[in-house]
Amino acid sequence: MSDLVTLSKSGTVAIVEINNPPVNALGQAVRKGLLDAVKQAEADPEVTAIVIIGAGRTFPAGADIKEFGRPMEDPHLPDVIDQIENCAKPVVAALHGTALGGGFEIALGSHYRIALSDTRVGLPEIHLGLIPGAGGTQRVPRLCGAEMALGIMLKGTPISAQAANAAGLIDCIVESDLLDAALTYASQLTQVRRTRDETRGLTDEPAYRAALAAAENMANKRMRGQIAPLQIIACVKATLEKTFDEGRLYERDCFFDCLASEQSKGMIHAFFAERASAKVPEAGRAQPRPLNILGVVGGGTMGAGITVAALNSGLPVTMIERDDDSLKRGRTNVEKVYDRLLAKGRITHDHKASVMALYTGSTDYADLCDADMVIEAVFERLDVKREVFTQLDKVMKPSAVFASNTSYIDIDHISSATGRPNQVLGLHFFSPANIMKLLEIVVPKGVADDVVATGFALAKRLGKVPVRSGNSAGFIGNRILGKYGMCAAHMMEDGATPYEIDAAIYAFGYPMGIHAMYDLAGLDIGWDNRKSAAPTRNPAERDVQISDRICEHGWFGQKTGRGFYLYPQGARIGTPDPKVLTIIEAERALKGITPRSFSYEEIMERYMAAMVNEACEVLREAVALKPSDIDVTFIQGYGFPRFRGGPMKYADGYGLGKMLDNIRAYETEDPVFWKPSPLLVDLIAAGHTFEDLN
Ligand code: 3H9
Predict the structure, then answer these.
(1) Does the Cβ of 82 fall within 6 Å of ligand 1?
(2) Rounded distance from Cα 63 to ligand 1 centre (Å)
(3) pLDDT tens track for 89-142
(4) Which one is catalytic: 17, 67, 73, 125?
């Protein structure tokens, strides 16, 4: 037996313990150990029942994702689970932590399931572009019906032990002493029970079929182009049409189809990239400073969103505003978030009250004297921000960490307003800040390591996905966005309508196209930026002014009812605007451009080439530490389809040589905009890919 699985006995009950930190992933050695242990316990005449339990922080959290992509080694998880299910002695799975994926499937193949009350169980394979492949799609619907089973597998979000218990997925919940409770439970069992024979979930066939139809409808709309969701639905349908064994074989085929797909490779890449982005050199060299009280300056959309994110994590927040009216608005902005949840029945009044008890508002900076960290989230103007930092410098304690929530401004220009610039970093939150996962942590030169480590500790506490960025204009995300945004503008002026460009981007897998996104963010933001950048613009650079013309009409996007699109009666989804097309035609005529047509393929080739080429510059200048950080930035902050793994992963798959050829061809049309990045050229010359740089 392997060291990762141990077998012991308590009286007549055998204890099989899985000990593979940190999450007891089910790698080959664990599977083999588990198989051997169960066989051995079954063969032991003294043993009357078996308990399977995880050591450390959790019951297995699933298959070992690192093994995917390599040849599968025996024993396979479904065979291990068969051994457990076919065991002649009762097997009890004792769950704690996060029993996920293959881990939960082991529990489902066991005859009984007992769990600590704070356990979460689930089948999150969908987030890896996979489906449950060890019986999950066949057992869960048999136990709890199609609607709940599809919810668990299509959302991939773990559910509480209580919800699982109510649905019949867990038999018994205990508050503490899991092993003792499981031993007592197991010692009283006399017979085995097989989840495969359950039919409770199948009793109401019309409801079952209705749930399948609803899921299919949802997947086609909201999970467009993805393979795994439809495979999950097909597997659940198979529970009606096939025997358990046939269904399992069908599930197995679907699992391997998904595993072989580019989509699962992209999503698995994203899984590891999101964990790697938190591992920065500074956090390896220094411990974070204590973080018990947070200050937030500004109660507008961003300040309130950041406050909510902090309050949700249990961090007390002192919000500073310039006067009583503004402070009242700030508090209202925070409360609005909870009131919406209350209205939807997602939280109780008590919950809101307990969270709001952590909130303090003030108009006096001196009230930040105890704060360990302060995040400034005021208007995006350097003079305003500098004034705030001057005030903060007077009142913050010596060890305090200062952060500016900015999307563009040079942090050095802000930090020089304080006497301690080595304690100032940038935190670029994305709106809505309490929802969006991405947090760009902007690290100017000379910032103390423990200050950077504190920024990453804050991100972890708030449940954000942090990406380290150098202090370059627009940081990682907006800098690259600026470039491919320009590429889209060129295509628009050359003949593609904004609606065709958006349709191509949507078909690629984005939730919306770039013009719809501009409308959502507000066209005036870009207009202001272009006006302030005008004096320093390179005159040789192509200057598309279509969106300026739109702004000159006062059409700033959704908030004014029209932008690139029309939004009649407050509509959230826009319709094409013939007047915008007229504006575009006029601009083309002014420049003497004869419009030509663009296929979706060409639109995406140019769009991706602009994105990846600028990303190479961001890497070359060490603004981003590695390509996978850029992938994370675009997946988490800019709607890049996760199933494509991010722009750099996509580029590796597309072929770097082919992408460079495209860029060189575009360069002949516009040598100012299209300059191949030396990093891309060198990478190809060395026969490497972005993956090699990760
Ligand atoms: C599956 O089960 C398929 C089956 O249906 C069929 C098979 C035939 N494997 O996230 P954290 C690592 S598919 C390998 O920072 P947390 C992770 O990379 C699987 N490694 O901790 C990190 O490593 P490092 C279905 C894994 O507390 C470390 O563990 N299951 C795995 O924030 C800590 O992770 C899933 O999709 C794994 N399965 O969150 C669950 N899981 O320190 C995926 C984690 O080197 N995992 N690692 O960076 C999770 O959702 C979270 O990790 C979990 C803990 C909630 C468990």
Answers:
(1) no
(2) 8
(3) 999 999 999 999 999 999 999 999 999 999 999 999 999 999 999 999 999 999
(4) 125
The CATH code of domain 5-260 reads 3.90.226.10
Where do the structural domains in the chain lie, given as residue ranges? 5-260, 284-474, 478-622+625-693
Residue 278 and residue 283: Cα distance in Å, rounded?
9
Q: Do domains 5-260 and 284-474 have the same CATH topology?
A: no
What residue owns the CA closest to ligand 1's atom 18?
272
CATH H-level superfamily of 284-474: NAD(P)-binding Rossmann-like Domain (3.40.50.720)
Residues across the chain = 694
Nearest-atom number in ligand 1 for the CA of 62 is 2
Q: What is the pLDDT of residues 141-183, one digit of tens each?
A: 999 999 999 999 999 999 999 999 999 999 999 999 999 999 9
Taking only the tens place, the pLDDT of each residue in 554-573 is 999 999 999 999 999 989 89
Helix %, strand %, coil % of the chain (to 5): 55, 10, 35
606-638 burial, b at 16+ Cβ within 10 Å, e below that, comes to bbbbbbbbbbbbbbeeebbbbbbbbbbbbbbbb
The pLDDT, as a whole number, for residue 464 is 97
- pLDDT score, position 1: 62
Q: Which residues contact 570 (CB under 8 A, 6 or more apart)?
A: 561
Measured from the CB, is residue 66 less than 6 Å from ligand 1?
yes
SS (H, E, C) 230-265: HHHHHHHHHHHHCCHHHHHHHHHHHHHHHHHCHHHH
Q: Is 587 a catalytic residue?
A: no
**CATH topology for the 478-622+625-693 domain:** N-(1-d-carboxylethyl)-l-norvaline Dehydrogenase; domain 2 (1.10.1040)
Place of tokens 């003294």: 46
- Is the CB of residue 5 below 6 angstroms from any atom belonging to ligand 1? no
Residue 376 is a catalytic residue: no
CB atoms within 10 A of CB 464: 24
Residue 338, pLDDT > 70, answer yes
Three-state DSSP state, 7: strand
586 closest CA partner among 542, 527, 545, 538: 545
- 8 Å CB contact between 270 and 434: no
Q: What is the per-residue DSSP string for 276-299?
A: HTT--HHHHHSPPPP-S-EEEE--
Measured in whole angstroms, the distance separating CA 86 from the mean position of its chain's CA atoms is 39
CA distances from 561 to 438, 515, 521, 567, 597 (A): 28, 14, 13, 5, 29
Q: Does residue 646 sit in helix, strand or coil?
A: coil
DSSP string over 51-106: EEEE-TT-S--SB-GGGTTSPP-SSPHHHHHHHHHH-SS-EEEEE-SEEETHHHHH
Which numbered atom of ligand 1 lies nearest the CA of 134? 6
23 lines ligand 1 (CB under 6 A): yes
Rg of the chain over CA atoms, in angstroms? 28
Going from the Cα of 23 to the center of ligand 1, the distance in angstroms, rounded, reads 7
**pTM of the complete model:** 0.94
